[in-house]
Amino acid sequence: MSVTLANAKLLGLDDKQSALAEEIITVDELYAVLPFVPVSGNAYTYERELALVTAAGIAIDGTLTPGQSTYAEVTVPLTTLAAQVEVNKLLQAQGVGALVDGGLVASQLARAAKSVGRLYAQWFITGDAGTTGQFSGLQTLLATAAFDNQRIDAADAALSFEMLDSLVSAVKLRRADAIVLSQKARNKVKSLMRAAGGVTMAEVGGRQILTYDGIPLIANDWTGTDVDGVTAGAQENIYAVCLGDDGVSGLTTGSMAGINAELVGTHATKDQDIWRVKFYSSLAVHSTKSVAQLLSVTV
């Protein structure tokens, strides 16, 4: 759909502030620190260990039984997250919105990029490759058999330090880089800390972030509420993750990494430019031991 005249007039030539006031906001601190792996080819493929060759002690002149280590091949296809805007050329020529966000086109492209970024952040948690166009996020992946040992079912019990200890301990790859939870859950942890004697903070990405046992508590409101569907707004999922190309990482293409804006051209029958904002991306969880989920905990 093209930008309407009524909508463009909101950015018109009246005395205006030089920036829009953002109202559509979902807190997601993870997106800013998530590493991305560049991908070439049709999909991203890696191997996971399944079993190691058996080691044994042997006596002098003893013999060894030959064996082999085995692996599972995991393939993750990339998908396209995109938004399209169409801007009338007369409105551009008139300078409509010139003082706001760099102009009408720039403002529309910025909002489109924001929408694409928000969609990626949402799918990172809730995405399901079973739905056309999506990739599988943490919630979907951790529900599969490969991650059976990485789920801790709180069974709607109230959040406690002991639960967080169990969550962190379930991440075997190395010490978790982050605990990902909603703002509501993080506030609950902060309340527990205050009751126990005080809170601890650390700098992450230039900001002071609450930490638990030295691990940053990264707020992400896409983790959702009422995940068990029983008590409205009470139950949530919390994740502990190792970030990196051996753990949890985003995927993007090598030649067009990140979110890109493309001028498609002039509309075939209308006097307007067509712009497309795209992000070729997906999510990889390399080691099943790099992530764990505290399932259905009351906060």
Unreliable segments of 5+ consecutive residues: 13-20
Count of individual helical segments:
6
Instruction: Give helix and strand order, one letter per element, not per position.
Output: HEEEEHHHEHEHEEEEEEEE
Q: What share of the residues lie within helices?
A: 10-25%
Q: Cα-atom Rg, whole angstroms? A: 24 Å
> How many structurally independent domains?
1
* CATH architectural arrangement: Alpha-Beta Complex
Strand order of the largest sheet: 5-14-10-6-9-8-7
Largest sheet: 7 strands, mixed
**Total number of β-strand segments?**
14
Structural class: alpha+beta
Strand content: 25-35%
Sequence-ordered SSE layout with sheet pairings:
Layout: H1 5-9, E1 36-39, E2 43-51, E3 70-77, E4 79-88, H2 89-94, H3 104-126, H4 138-141, E5 151-153, H5 161-169, E6 178-181, H6 183-196, E7 200-204, E8 207-212, E9 215-219, E10 235-241, E11 248-253, E12 259-266, E13 272-285, E14 291-298
